[in-house]
Design goal:
By secondary structure, this protein is an alpha+beta fold. Helices cover 38% and strands 15% of the residues.
Amino acid sequence: MNLVGKKSYMMIFGVMKMANDRVSRETAELIPLPPHTWYVRKVGWLLEQEKVQENIKNVPANEPLKEALKNEGIRSPFLCMPNWYPIAGSQRLRVLTELPELHEQEVRVCRFDKEWWLLYYLWGDTDFRDKAVAVWFQMAELVWKSMYYEDDPTFLEHEALGDELEWKHKSKLMGKL
């Protein structure tokens, strides 16, 4: 079985990013995710969180996604780190900074209870470590999106486009542990 799927990738941390890939929901449900809690929050509340304010402008604006959100609203949930920065949904949150009319919309947010990926920062080989952390996030995102995102070909196209945009993410944690 091919668990990787489509070949629309961009390089991030030296490994492939696959925001628009999915596995079947049945396959995703076989994979355990770390402990997490579900919340309902307003978009404006998410945008006010410290790490979101600090980093969201580093996410490129996906203009077709912005238009789709204007027309259709927000349907899929967000997956966030404990600091509320999105693992899945950063492109949506980025364009929502420019759509104040949607800031009062309530959205579902799944938040990992702890920073489960930090154990990889104990690995001595920094190149391998950084790739392992990136793969951890990519696989968590792949499984989570496969379970909780609506099957919408239009939004898959927006994610594929987002993979092609120029991202400016840099982890501040790298090299500090």
